[in-house]
Amino acid sequence: MKVRLSFQARIASVLIMLLLIVVFAVFLAVKAATQDAVRKQAQAQLEVGTRVFEGLLEMRGKRLRDAVQLLSTDFGFRDAVASADSATIRSVLLNHGARINASDMFLLGMDGTVMASTVAQIPEGSPFPYIQALRDLKGKNQSMLIVPLQGQPHLLVESAVMAPLPIARVVMGFSMDGDLAQELRSLSGLQVSFLSIVHQQPGQMISTQPDPLFDSLRSVMMNPPGDEAQMTEHQNQSFLSKTLRLGSVSDSDGEVVALLQSPLDQAMQAFAPLDKTLFWITVVALAGSLLGTLLLARSLSRPVSALANAARRIGEGDYTTPVVMERSDELGLLAGAINLMQSGIAEREVQLAHNALHDPLTGLPNRALVMERLGSAVSSQRPVALLYLGIDNFRGISSSIGLEGVEQLLRLISEQLKLPLRPGDTVARLSDNEFLLLVHNAETDSAVAVADRLQRLLVKPQRIGEQDIAMDACIGIAAYPADGDSAAELLRRASIARQDASQLPGRLQVYVEGRDVAHQRQISLIRDLRQAPRNGELALHYQPKLDIRNGRVTQAEALLRWQHPQFGSVSPAEFIVLAERTGSIQLLTNWVIEEALRQLAEWARRGLVLQLSVNISADDLVDSNLADRVSALLKLHRVPAEQLIFEITESAIMREPEQSLKVLNRLREFGISLSVDDFGTGYSSLAHLKRLPVQELKIDQSFVRDLDETSEDAVIVRSTIEMSHNLGLKVVAEGVEYEHSLRLLEHWQCDTAQGYLISRPLNAVAFEAWIARSQLPPRMTMH
Amino acid sequence: MRRLAVSLLLIVTALQGTFASAATLTAEFVDARGKPLADAVLTLRGGAQPAAGELKADMDQRNQQFAPRVLAVRSGTQIRFPNSDQIRHQVYSFSTPKRFELRLYGGTPSDPVLFDKPGVVVLGCNVHDWMLGYVYVTDDGWFGVSDAKGTLTLDQVPAGHYAVTLWHPQAPDMQPVSGGDIDIPAGGLRQRFSIAVQPNADAAPAAPPSSAFGDAFHKAAHE
Q1: CB A165 to CB B99 under 8 A?
Q2: How many helices (H) and strands (E) does chain A have?
Q3: ipTM of the complex
């Protein structure tokens, strides 16, 4: 709604602004035109009026002259003038002047001397001041003279008195009064003002204008701007004014100035209705445009908001309601486009949803979908079994059959996985080589049955390209509700079971309770093991090895101990396996070798010289740098190589026999002794051992622990000792716990014994103390 | 009074005649440019005065003009003002030597007007402003007015020495001027006089000019 209002407002404001601009422009144009017209009209009026004025004045002058001429021919008048009696003459002048309303009368002699006068200013006997101007009139074809007389403009006309020859001149003056001005005004249509100016002193103002304007008028007339029409302002009233010099006799005699004015304001007044009309036109147009805008905006904003609603619907996921708009304009097109977009989005969303929940290669549900289904089964408390299936030899397979072969194989597997399932059960692909099957309404037992069937199906070799592929499928099983009550937990436990399964010959494992705790511990150990050497959590313990023949201890085995900050002492059996699995065993071996050498060096400084055995793992044997590193360390700690024995298991050597042999030979070259550990647990034979550069053989403690004369172990141990001796190898018996075992070994001429009977593994300090104690008598009293 | 260059050229022609017997003076008037001057008045003073008898003269009005235009008379002359026109005139004069007025009349008024003082009397008609006539009143015994050719002939003038006075309506300020002294032999004298006259400006108003309307009216009236 807000948007619509502002949209409307915008359209309205634009329209109204445009309208106002147009109206304003029109107004200006009209104003300018009217002003121009008024001015022109006033100008024309002024010009016409001026001509009329001049004509009228001239006519009046002629009329007056004619009247005076007529008067001057009056016989009685002439008779009186001829009498030369000035009193008579004056009375006659007054009498006759009154006949034609003259205000001033003079009789002049032919030489211009005043013979009689009714004006005191111009006494009899004096020369008439305007005589020359009067004489000039005839030449200028004028009939009258306008002069300032007694502060007022006067028309002077003259006539000769003929008797019948001219004997005198009679001059009559007519004051130009308000009546004359009014008369001129009524005929010319102009405001008329007269002002006489003598010696720059203004006389009385005679004007048709109202009194308050006189001062202003006077200033204009005192300094006439010129002949051209001028705009003048008087008391805020505008006039087009023209100044006329009516009579300029001479500087000393002064002049009469007429001001003709055409009022502009009045003319402007005539156009006032036009302004009003314009105003109303504007108002009506504004109202009309507002209404039009409203309608237009409505016709736009309604469909726009309908479209907006449609867009919002689509945004909310409603792809079924189409926009209905019966329009053929752009909005109609937009509606069509939105409908198209809607169906397109719906289509693609279905596709996207499928892609999001399915594996693109096999078309199987992916982890997200299977987890969702598992979650829904759990939440609705339906029993369900999870079969976590992994193909262990997948990497080997993929490297042999290539990418296309793998894809083909995966599609095959996905088909096979579906075979033992009922409708409603789910097969999902979790990763490259891992699948998860959900079997509904299944207990662990029936799940195992399904797993068994699957394994049987998968173990059959598949023909891919030119190769027959047999898959090694491990299956871990977890079931709801037995093994967990959340989807994530169930999946994790199934995964643990599958990892456990991979260690088992049957390749099938049902989740064992607590395995996940153990699993967590393993993860922690794996994580912390890398930090252990740096954190000083590792230590070497030393177990003495007794030379059976002379009863002395000149050898010991270094055994690694880990004091974990959280789990406490961790058994080597636990963490060595993890280290070997995660590849961090070399880290440990390095630390052990270095620590052993450091300890040997320390002991050597105190006079304790021993031969120390250190366990080397299979990973160490493939490290070609091992020999160099050990050599460097021996030199660093100045320990003779003869003091070091490396113990290697049979299986370690067997993993990479050739590489191992190389490493072993190099070590042997330094003078390091090599010992075969845990002999008897692997499949190696003595004949095989012959090829190795070993000097010693350690019989596994499982044969030694419960050794007595009658057991099978006794045969093995005794024959092993004999054969070893025949091969030139020394023999060490591990796990000697009982006195009679030691005696048997001595009897069988075993070289060295190691076990709790002699001493448990001791830390460096305890070991040193133990040696000191036991070595005091040069020979141990063991029997 | 301005001193005008008056050249008085005397061409003395010896005429036959005795001293005691009457002689004839023939005067020719010209203006400054040598053109013949009509209406010039010449008076002679000196010699024997003619006998004083009853002095009478007529100043006619003909065709709305005074006839003659200039009339010279001796002081004490009774002048009649017969009106030869069909219309009436009202003759007047405000001149100092003789102020008079003849009321509007036709024909010949019963009483003549006595001009008893010398001087110039300007005549006018009150109803016809353009009518202008002059009566030159003189005390001299011999006088005359030049005709249209500018010639004046005085017969029966006794030979002798005379002072000549000249006048013309257009003389400066309308004042008479001296023509010098002349000796008129018995055989008569023919002499040329030159009078400086002013152009006829500022004089009496002319007869009303014909106007278009007047012409039209006149035409219409006569067709």
Answers
A1: no
A2: 26, 27
A3: 0.71
